[in-house]
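Ticket reopened. Same input as before:
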Amino acid sequence: MTGLLIISLFVWWIIKDPTRQFAESIPGADNRGSDSASIGPPVVIGENFQQFGTSTSSLKGTWTRFRGADYDNIAKNSQPLKNSWTGNQPEILWSVDLGEGHAGPAIYEGKVYVMDYDEVKRQDALRCFSLENGKELWRRSYKVSLKRNHGMSRTVPAVSSDYILTIGPRCHVMCVKRESGDLLWGLDMVQKYKTEVPLWFTGQCPMIDGTKAILAPGGSAIMIAVDCATGKVLWETPNPGGFKMSHSSIMPWTLNGKKMYVYSAVGGVLGVSAEGADEGKILWKSTAWNHAVVAPAPVCFPDGKVFLTAGYGAGSMMIKVTPSGGEYKVDVLKEYSPKDGMACEQQTPIVWDGVMFAIEPKDAGPLRNQLICVSPNDVNKVIWTSGKDGRFGLGPYLIADQKMFLLSDDGTLTMIKPDSKRYIQMAQKKLFDGQDAWAPMAIADGRLLLRDSKKMYCVIVSQ
Amino acid sequence: MSDRKEPKSMERRRFIRSGMQMALAVSLGGVASVSFIKSTSKDLVWQIDPFKCVQCGRCATECIMTPSAVKCVHSFNLCGYCDLCGGYLKPDPNARSTAAENQLCPTAAINRRYIEEPYFEYVIDEKLCIGCAKCVAGCTSFGNGSLHLQIRHDRCKNCNECAIARVCPADAFQRVPRNTPYLIKGGFTKGGTSKDQLKKG
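Engineering reply: fixed in the latest deploy. New output:
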């Protein structure tokens, strides 16, 4: 009897499957649908124009693109700015409502250009405002359907004396005459290059190099050059690695006298020749840097080092590009998590006086959202931080007149003295009850332009 | 003229009906009284201030209940419904899919459901949730912070000396009135601990 019981128990033990209640976690359980990016009426880029007024201005300052004229977020030849703020200072000169988004402005001689999205009319809209009073002067727009996805617009136009170049949330490129807003040409990168619209829409800010528009579609061409005047495609860089468009922007770089464009894509980083017989050809690339979401631009140093960083847990990487007999070698010098050194989620570090400044992401442990300073030679060693009381969210920053301005998510503006040895706060003021004030700022003629998700402000910071 | 009495069965039926009505009235009155007493009670229960929580993971291991009485809750009116959800997916995932290797939750307690391009909905399966706060940390770091921890009072024993409160490094555990036992993000804002700001459970 006992033997029978033991045998029965043994059989039961053998037969019983203790994991039969378990459910497998396999792809597809969310019933993900197909991408509806191509659904909707055809987009006629630049189809509408409205003139609201004209403006003549004596202002001559410029902030011509993402990170300013020299791509370093530092305003050169700035007029003297206030060293401290008292009372109502810094004063908000004007403000305008914008569609929900994070698109920063560009400035050219008294005019402000913003790539906006009109949620009521469902239009991408390049809007031109007077820098002096915020009055809208004209608007060039086109209908395109978007759904809210943490804001819609998030790119800064590129402006030259003749042209304005924009990229809309769904990768529609538009080039217009700067003064009049007359349409020159449009390009749908999704249609032409099979660009995959990035998560939360396009974040890449376009580049104008001379008279060429430089863009990174991903898809069938990782980089292209287009003649600003005619819209003619001058060259296309094949994309055999299948790199995708990221939220990062193309940065110019000169290494050993060779001019190139550097792009931190989804899938890898690469350098494309910007001149000579091999213009448009890939000089070097690396897939060691490969993350799903990349927003900061690469920071390139004269010695061949390139600092790459991204959010959502990616951390950072320092690579070294070495020219060698007409070829280029790429070595990974460092790779680390956000807690172990300088990292950024949205903004790009500023290089100043031999050191780098950046705001740490939320997953950087005790340093989360603090401004930190490191040497490019040792990005893991923090020289100083803004401290636990100096957290700035994901906000933007720039330098002008030996002063660094930082905007917190909630609309608090902080002015510090950029210094390679310690954190020196000069002034701080909560300007408005902001939400998600992440857009890159712009400054010209002593006027600082900043915005939160729904409103743009012009703040007087000059003496 | 006859002086006939009603049949006994009729009296019995009336008696039973009256009795039932009385019992019902007493029950309703009792429930109403208890509800009133509870709603005006000064009794306190434990709850987590989601704005103080630092997602240390102790809620999963220190509670006397197994699994913990602390669960993740989702404030849908705050959620961004992202495809790349920092609360659902591991940092830098291989793919934005429901595959186990991409999920952050160690017990697969978050159900991800496609709504329409580009939106996804995330629902907590409380039976599986152990209160480890991994998803809360991800959502707080990369999203709107709509995922957050709360003590579920259908499970909590309300120990006078809460085992988690003793070790909480952020002092996020606090006693709140029993009639407003939850501090749900959205209805409850940072620093808002006054009674009128507490969301009723």
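The mean pLDDT of chain A is 95. The longest strand of chain A covers residues 315-324. Please confirm and we'll close it.
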